[in-house]
Amino acid sequence: MKTLFKLAAIAAAFGLAPAAASGQAPAPAADQAAPAAAAAPAADAASTAGNSATPAAPALLTPEAGIGQPDGRAALQTQFTPIGEEAAWFHNKILMTLIIAISIFVLILLLIVIVRFRRGANPTPTRTAHNTVLEVIWTLVPVIILVLIAIPSIRLLAHQYSPPRADLTVKVTGNQWFWEYEYPDNGIHIVSNMLTDEQARARHEPRQLGVDNRLVVPAGAVVKVIVTSNDVIHSWGVPGFWVKIDAVPGRLNETWFKVDRPGVYYGVCYELCGARHGFMPIAVEVLPRDQFAQWVASQGGHMAGAATTPEAAAAAAPAETANTVATAAEPATTNQAETR
Ligand SMILES: [Cu+2]
Protein backbone atom coordinates (compact mmCIF):
# COMPACT_ATOMS: atom_id res chain seq x y z
CA MET A 1 0.00 0.00 0.00
CA LYS A 2 2.82 2.37 0.92
CA THR A 3 4.69 1.69 -2.31
CA LEU A 4 1.53 2.24 -4.33
CA PHE A 5 1.05 5.55 -2.60
CA LYS A 6 4.65 6.56 -3.34
CA LEU A 7 4.32 5.57 -6.99
CA ALA A 8 1.17 7.59 -7.29
CA ALA A 9 2.85 10.57 -5.65
CA ILE A 10 5.83 10.37 -8.03
CA ALA A 11 3.54 10.14 -11.02
CA ALA A 12 1.56 13.11 -9.78
CA ALA A 13 4.76 15.10 -9.37
CA PHE A 14 5.64 14.41 -13.02
CA GLY A 15 2.21 15.36 -14.17
CA LEU A 16 2.06 18.48 -12.05
CA ALA A 17 5.17 20.00 -13.62
CA PRO A 18 4.11 21.44 -16.97
CA ALA A 19 6.70 23.04 -19.21
CA ALA A 20 6.91 26.70 -18.42
CA ALA A 21 6.12 29.20 -21.11
CA SER A 22 9.33 30.59 -22.46
CA GLY A 23 10.35 33.57 -20.39
CA GLN A 24 12.87 36.00 -21.75
CA ALA A 25 15.17 38.13 -19.69
CA PRO A 26 14.80 41.72 -20.92
CA ALA A 27 18.25 42.93 -21.77
CA PRO A 28 19.84 44.80 -24.66
CA ALA A 29 21.12 42.59 -27.43
CA ALA A 30 22.35 45.26 -29.80
CA ASP A 31 26.00 44.25 -29.44
CA GLN A 32 26.20 40.93 -31.19
CA ALA A 33 28.88 39.16 -29.16
CA ALA A 34 28.10 35.77 -30.64
CA PRO A 35 30.97 33.94 -32.37
CA ALA A 36 31.73 34.95 -35.90
CA ALA A 37 31.11 31.43 -37.20
CA ALA A 38 27.51 32.41 -37.88
CA ALA A 39 26.93 32.49 -41.60
CA ALA A 40 29.97 30.39 -42.48
CA PRO A 41 28.32 27.04 -43.32
CA ALA A 42 25.86 28.53 -45.80
CA ALA A 43 28.64 30.49 -47.45
CA ASP A 44 30.85 27.39 -47.59
CA ALA A 45 28.11 25.31 -49.13
CA ALA A 46 27.55 27.93 -51.77
CA SER A 47 31.20 28.20 -52.73
CA THR A 48 32.04 24.48 -52.72
CA ALA A 49 29.01 23.43 -54.69
CA GLY A 50 29.69 26.08 -57.32
CA ASN A 51 27.40 28.98 -58.01
CA SER A 52 25.24 27.27 -60.61
CA ALA A 53 24.83 23.95 -58.77
CA THR A 54 23.28 25.29 -55.54
CA PRO A 55 19.55 25.87 -55.93
CA ALA A 56 17.89 28.75 -54.13
CA ALA A 57 16.45 28.06 -50.70
CA PRO A 58 12.67 28.35 -50.35
CA ALA A 59 11.48 31.74 -49.13
CA LEU A 60 11.70 32.22 -45.34
CA LEU A 61 8.38 31.53 -43.64
CA THR A 62 7.05 34.51 -41.72
CA PRO A 63 6.19 33.77 -38.09
CA GLU A 64 2.57 34.28 -36.99
CA ALA A 65 1.58 36.00 -33.76
CA GLY A 66 0.44 33.60 -31.06
CA ILE A 67 1.80 30.56 -32.87
CA GLY A 68 5.02 28.98 -31.64
CA GLN A 69 5.88 32.04 -29.56
CA PRO A 70 4.73 33.71 -26.33
CA ASP A 71 1.74 36.03 -26.73
CA GLY A 72 1.27 37.29 -23.18
CA ARG A 73 -1.38 34.83 -22.07
CA ALA A 74 -0.97 33.15 -18.67
CA ALA A 75 -1.37 29.64 -20.05
CA LEU A 76 0.43 27.00 -22.04
CA GLN A 77 1.29 27.86 -25.63
CA THR A 78 -0.90 26.26 -28.28
CA GLN A 79 0.48 22.80 -28.97
CA PHE A 80 1.40 21.46 -32.40
CA THR A 81 2.57 17.91 -31.70
CA PRO A 82 0.50 14.85 -30.69
CA ILE A 83 2.41 14.69 -27.38
CA GLY A 84 1.87 18.40 -26.80
CA GLU A 85 -1.86 18.08 -27.42
CA GLU A 86 -2.13 15.15 -25.03
CA ALA A 87 -0.08 16.94 -22.36
CA ALA A 88 -2.00 20.21 -22.74
CA TRP A 89 -5.29 18.31 -22.44
CA PHE A 90 -4.00 16.59 -19.28
CA HIS A 91 -2.87 19.91 -17.80
CA ASN A 92 -5.83 22.06 -18.81
CA LYS A 93 -8.70 19.61 -18.46
CA ILE A 94 -7.62 17.21 -15.70
CA LEU A 95 -5.06 18.92 -13.48
CA MET A 96 -6.47 22.45 -13.54
CA THR A 97 -10.01 21.16 -12.88
CA LEU A 98 -8.77 19.09 -9.97
CA ILE A 99 -6.65 21.88 -8.52
CA ILE A 100 -9.51 24.38 -8.70
CA ALA A 101 -12.03 21.91 -7.23
CA ILE A 102 -9.75 20.99 -4.31
CA SER A 103 -8.90 24.64 -3.62
CA ILE A 104 -12.59 25.60 -3.51
CA PHE A 105 -13.41 22.60 -1.28
CA VAL A 106 -10.67 23.48 1.22
CA LEU A 107 -11.67 27.14 1.15
CA ILE A 108 -15.27 26.21 1.98
CA LEU A 109 -14.12 23.99 4.88
CA LEU A 110 -11.99 26.83 6.22
CA LEU A 111 -14.89 29.29 6.00
CA ILE A 112 -17.18 26.85 7.84
CA VAL A 113 -14.61 26.44 10.61
CA ILE A 114 -14.01 30.18 10.88
CA VAL A 115 -17.71 30.98 11.15
CA ARG A 116 -19.20 28.04 13.05
CA PHE A 117 -16.42 27.27 15.47
CA ARG A 118 -15.27 30.79 16.34
CA ARG A 119 -15.05 31.55 20.06
CA GLY A 120 -18.22 33.69 20.08
CA ALA A 121 -20.41 30.96 18.55
CA ASN A 122 -18.74 27.98 20.19
CA PRO A 123 -17.33 28.89 23.66
CA THR A 124 -16.70 25.31 24.87
CA PRO A 125 -14.93 23.33 22.14
CA THR A 126 -15.44 19.59 21.81
CA ARG A 127 -12.61 17.37 23.10
CA THR A 128 -12.94 14.83 20.25
CA ALA A 129 -9.46 13.53 19.27
CA HIS A 130 -10.13 10.59 16.95
CA ASN A 131 -12.72 9.62 14.39
CA THR A 132 -11.90 6.41 12.59
CA VAL A 133 -14.37 6.84 9.73
CA LEU A 134 -13.22 10.38 9.04
CA GLU A 135 -9.54 9.36 9.16
CA VAL A 136 -10.07 6.51 6.72
CA ILE A 137 -11.92 8.82 4.36
CA TRP A 138 -9.33 11.59 4.39
CA THR A 139 -6.58 9.04 3.70
CA LEU A 140 -8.39 7.10 1.00
CA VAL A 141 -9.79 10.01 -0.99
CA PRO A 142 -6.36 11.61 -1.69
CA VAL A 143 -4.98 8.17 -2.62
CA ILE A 144 -7.79 7.66 -5.11
CA ILE A 145 -7.24 11.16 -6.54
CA LEU A 146 -3.49 10.47 -6.96
CA VAL A 147 -4.13 7.14 -8.66
CA LEU A 148 -6.59 8.82 -11.01
CA ILE A 149 -3.92 11.42 -11.88
CA ALA A 150 -1.28 8.71 -12.26
CA ILE A 151 -3.11 6.88 -15.03
CA PRO A 152 -3.08 9.65 -17.69
CA SER A 153 0.27 10.91 -16.37
CA ILE A 154 2.09 7.59 -16.80
CA ARG A 155 0.34 7.06 -20.15
CA LEU A 156 1.69 10.45 -21.31
CA LEU A 157 5.20 9.56 -20.11
CA ALA A 158 5.03 6.25 -21.97
CA HIS A 159 3.97 8.04 -25.17
CA GLN A 160 6.80 10.54 -24.81
CA TYR A 161 9.41 7.83 -24.39
CA SER A 162 8.21 5.46 -27.11
CA PRO A 163 8.69 7.47 -30.29
CA PRO A 164 7.60 6.13 -33.68
CA ARG A 165 10.26 5.33 -36.28
CA ALA A 166 12.15 8.50 -37.15
CA ASP A 167 11.91 10.03 -40.64
CA LEU A 168 14.67 12.52 -39.97
CA THR A 169 17.49 12.71 -37.43
CA VAL A 170 18.93 16.00 -36.26
CA LYS A 171 21.87 16.38 -33.91
CA VAL A 172 21.67 19.50 -31.76
CA THR A 173 24.78 20.82 -30.02
CA GLY A 174 24.66 23.58 -27.41
CA ASN A 175 27.47 26.11 -27.30
CA GLN A 176 28.09 29.25 -25.27
CA TRP A 177 25.93 30.88 -26.66
CA PHE A 178 24.46 29.49 -29.84
CA TRP A 179 23.12 26.24 -31.27
CA GLU A 180 24.52 23.97 -33.96
CA TYR A 181 22.35 21.65 -36.02
CA GLU A 182 23.65 18.66 -37.95
CA TYR A 183 21.67 16.43 -40.32
CA PRO A 184 23.84 13.29 -40.34
CA ASP A 185 21.80 11.61 -43.11
CA ASN A 186 21.71 14.69 -45.30
CA GLY A 187 25.23 16.05 -44.92
CA ILE A 188 24.14 19.41 -43.58
CA HIS A 189 25.64 21.45 -40.75
CA ILE A 190 24.15 24.73 -39.57
CA VAL A 191 25.23 27.29 -37.00
CA SER A 192 22.33 29.22 -35.53
CA ASN A 193 22.82 32.62 -33.86
CA MET A 194 20.31 35.11 -32.50
CA LEU A 195 19.36 38.06 -34.72
CA THR A 196 20.08 41.55 -33.46
CA ASP A 197 17.03 43.73 -32.77
CA GLU A 198 17.45 45.51 -36.13
CA GLN A 199 17.78 42.26 -38.06
CA ALA A 200 14.75 40.81 -36.27
CA ARG A 201 12.68 43.88 -37.15
CA ALA A 202 13.76 43.67 -40.77
CA ARG A 203 12.77 40.00 -40.98
CA HIS A 204 9.50 40.45 -39.02
CA GLU A 205 10.69 38.08 -36.32
CA PRO A 206 10.01 38.40 -32.60
CA ARG A 207 12.76 40.18 -30.68
CA GLN A 208 15.35 37.85 -29.11
CA LEU A 209 13.71 34.78 -30.62
CA GLY A 210 14.64 35.10 -34.29
CA VAL A 211 17.83 33.39 -35.49
CA ASP A 212 19.92 33.72 -38.64
CA ASN A 213 19.75 30.03 -39.57
CA ARG A 214 16.66 28.10 -38.49
CA LEU A 215 16.39 24.39 -37.84
CA VAL A 216 14.35 23.32 -40.87
CA VAL A 217 12.29 20.11 -40.77
CA PRO A 218 9.61 18.62 -43.03
CA ALA A 219 5.94 18.72 -42.02
CA GLY A 220 4.37 15.46 -40.87
CA ALA A 221 7.75 13.79 -40.32
CA VAL A 222 8.86 12.20 -37.07
CA VAL A 223 12.02 14.12 -36.19
CA LYS A 224 14.45 12.45 -33.83
CA VAL A 225 16.49 15.07 -31.97
CA ILE A 226 19.80 14.01 -30.45
CA VAL A 227 21.02 16.65 -28.04
CA THR A 228 24.47 17.28 -26.59
CA SER A 229 26.74 20.18 -25.65
CA ASN A 230 30.24 21.40 -26.38
CA ASP A 231 30.86 23.24 -23.13
CA VAL A 232 28.38 23.57 -20.25
CA ILE A 233 24.88 22.20 -19.70
CA HIS A 234 22.27 23.83 -21.93
CA SER A 235 18.70 22.76 -22.51
CA TRP A 236 16.97 22.63 -25.88
CA GLY A 237 13.26 23.32 -25.67
CA VAL A 238 10.38 24.41 -27.87
CA PRO A 239 7.21 25.06 -25.80
CA GLY A 240 4.85 24.65 -28.78
CA PHE A 241 6.16 21.10 -29.30
CA TRP A 242 6.19 20.11 -25.59
CA VAL A 243 9.89 19.38 -26.02
CA LYS A 244 12.58 20.25 -23.52
CA ILE A 245 15.74 18.24 -22.97
CA ASP A 246 19.12 18.91 -21.38
CA ALA A 247 22.18 19.31 -23.56
CA VAL A 248 24.94 17.73 -21.48
CA PRO A 249 28.62 17.65 -22.54
CA GLY A 250 29.80 14.11 -23.27
CA ARG A 251 26.31 12.70 -23.32
CA LEU A 252 23.63 12.18 -25.96
CA ASN A 253 20.04 12.83 -24.95
CA GLU A 254 17.20 12.04 -27.27
CA THR A 255 13.75 13.44 -27.84
CA TRP A 256 11.38 13.71 -30.79
CA PHE A 257 8.57 15.70 -32.30
CA LYS A 258 6.16 15.53 -35.21
CA VAL A 259 4.55 18.69 -36.48
CA ASP A 260 2.00 18.63 -39.30
CA ARG A 261 1.44 22.34 -39.62
CA PRO A 262 4.05 24.33 -41.57
CA GLY A 263 5.20 27.40 -39.68
CA VAL A 264 7.88 28.89 -37.47
CA TYR A 265 8.09 27.80 -33.84
CA TYR A 266 10.40 29.33 -31.25
CA GLY A 267 12.16 28.09 -28.16
CA VAL A 268 15.02 29.11 -25.91
CA CYS A 269 17.84 27.60 -23.87
CA TYR A 270 16.28 26.39 -20.61
CA GLU A 271 19.41 25.87 -18.54
CA LEU A 272 21.31 28.79 -17.03
CA CYS A 273 24.49 28.42 -19.05
CA GLY A 274 26.36 31.69 -18.64
CA ALA A 275 26.30 35.37 -19.45
CA ARG A 276 24.35 35.13 -22.73
CA HIS A 277 22.06 32.29 -21.69
CA GLY A 278 19.05 34.45 -22.54
CA PHE A 279 20.35 35.10 -26.05
CA MET A 280 20.58 31.68 -27.65
CA PRO A 281 17.04 31.21 -28.96
CA ILE A 282 15.78 28.34 -31.08
CA ALA A 283 13.73 28.72 -34.25
CA VAL A 284 12.26 25.65 -35.93
CA GLU A 285 10.84 26.09 -39.41
CA VAL A 286 8.43 23.37 -40.49
CA LEU A 287 8.22 23.21 -44.29
CA PRO A 288 6.01 21.14 -46.59
CA ARG A 289 7.97 18.09 -47.74
CA ASP A 290 8.76 19.27 -51.27
CA GLN A 291 10.03 22.60 -49.98
CA PHE A 292 12.12 20.76 -47.41
CA ALA A 293 13.81 18.83 -50.22
CA GLN A 294 14.45 22.15 -51.95
CA TRP A 295 15.94 23.56 -48.74
CA VAL A 296 18.19 20.49 -48.33
CA ALA A 297 19.45 20.97 -51.88
CA SER A 298 20.03 24.68 -51.22
CA GLN A 299 22.26 23.77 -48.28
CA GLY A 300 24.36 21.47 -50.47
CA GLY A 301 22.85 18.43 -48.77
CA HIS A 302 21.09 15.41 -50.17
CA MET A 303 17.88 13.57 -49.35
CA ALA A 304 18.91 10.15 -48.13
CA GLY A 305 18.12 7.14 -45.98
CA ALA A 306 14.97 7.41 -43.91
CA ALA A 307 14.75 11.13 -44.56
CA THR A 308 12.45 10.72 -47.51
CA THR A 309 9.70 8.51 -48.83
CA PRO A 310 9.46 7.64 -52.54
CA GLU A 311 6.51 10.03 -52.98
CA ALA A 312 8.41 12.81 -51.24
CA ALA A 313 11.43 12.21 -53.47
CA ALA A 314 9.23 12.29 -56.55
CA ALA A 315 7.63 15.49 -55.33
CA ALA A 316 11.04 16.96 -54.59
CA ALA A 317 12.52 16.33 -58.03
CA PRO A 318 10.43 18.87 -59.97
CA ALA A 319 10.98 21.43 -57.23
CA GLU A 320 14.72 21.07 -57.63
CA THR A 321 14.79 21.24 -61.40
CA ALA A 322 12.42 24.16 -61.41
CA ASN A 323 14.91 26.21 -59.48
CA THR A 324 18.16 25.19 -61.09
CA VAL A 325 19.74 23.82 -64.19
CA ALA A 326 19.52 20.06 -64.77
CA THR A 327 22.97 19.41 -63.27
CA ALA A 328 21.70 20.25 -59.80
CA ALA A 329 19.37 17.28 -59.67
CA GLU A 330 22.07 14.81 -60.65
CA PRO A 331 24.16 14.68 -57.47
CA ALA A 332 21.01 14.21 -55.41
CA THR A 333 19.84 11.20 -57.39
CA THR A 334 23.29 9.54 -57.40
CA ASN A 335 23.56 9.99 -53.66
CA GLN A 336 20.21 8.40 -53.14
CA ALA A 337 21.16 5.45 -55.26
CA GLU A 338 24.37 4.95 -53.28
CA THR A 339 22.70 4.91 -49.92
CA ARG A 340 20.03 2.42 -50.89
CU1 LIG B 1 22.41 27.61 -22.98
UniProtKB/TrEMBL annotation:
Keywords: Copper, Electron transport, Membrane, Metal-binding, Oxidoreductase, Respiratory chain, Signal, Translocase, Transmembrane, Transmembrane helix, Transport. Its cofactor is Cu cation. GO terms for molecular function: copper ion binding; cytochrome-c oxidase activity; oxidoreductase activity. It is an enzyme of class 7 (translocase). One of its GO terms (biological process) is ATP synthesis coupled electron transport. Residues 165-298 form the Cytochrome oxidase subunit II copper A binding domain. Its main location: membrane. The keyword Magnesium does not apply. Residues 307-340 are annotated as: Disordered. The chain crosses the membrane at residues 94-115, 136-158. It is a multi-pass membrane protein. It catalyses: 4 Fe(II)-[cytochrome c] + O2 + 8 H(+)(in) = 4 Fe(III)-[cytochrome c] + 2 H2O + 4 H(+)(out). Residues 67-164 form the Cytochrome oxidase subunit II transmembrane region profile domain. GO terms for cellular component: plasma membrane. Belongs to the cytochrome c oxidase subunit 2 family. Subunits I and II form the functional core of the enzyme complex. Electrons originating in cytochrome c are transferred via heme a and Cu(A) to the binuclear center formed by heme a3 and Cu(B). This is Cytochrome c oxidase subunit 2. The lineage of its organism: Bacteria, Pseudomonadati, Pseudomonadota, Alphaproteobacteria, Sphingomonadales.
